[in-house]
What we know:
Layout: H1 10-59, H2 66-80, E1 84-90, E2 93-100, H3 102-112, H4 123-137, E3 143-149, E4 152-158
Antiparallel strand pairs: 1-2, 2-4, 3-4
Helix pairs in contact: 1-4
Amino acid sequence: MTSETTSLDPAEKVDLWRQRYFEAQTGADEFVLGEHGEEGLARWIEANSRITADLMRAQRPEGLSATDHFMIRMQRQLLLYDSDVSVEPQASGTVLRNAECGILRYRKKAARAGVALAFKSPCGYCQKLNTAIANRYVEPDVKVSCELAGDGCTWRAERPHAPGED
Length: 166
């Protein structure tokens, strides 16, 4: 190791933040599962969803609905990992299509490099956690759901009836 200090370029910083976050999340997952099993994981999802929903309430920009804020957060989270994401406004709500999940791609790459993963796939955990966050955060008349498909998913935030329908 040299005593010279060099700066990381922006792309290196992004990759390093992803790696550090991934390492921390993997360690937390492994600890919770190892110490407390599936019941502990369910309790962690409940605690994490409560904490995140509270933070989102405090951070929600004025004039933005909780539902829109949640969907924007989902989109931005997926874009952090270069996911192939599109958002489609519809009469009943919003559809976020994640055609290729960068988080899943990142984890597959880590697994090929020999990283031990707590979950074979992060999709079930992501779906449970973010659905629990939505249930605590979005407006009561909005239903948020997720459908897994291949290496991606589709998130829907919909009202039972579009505005103006009886």
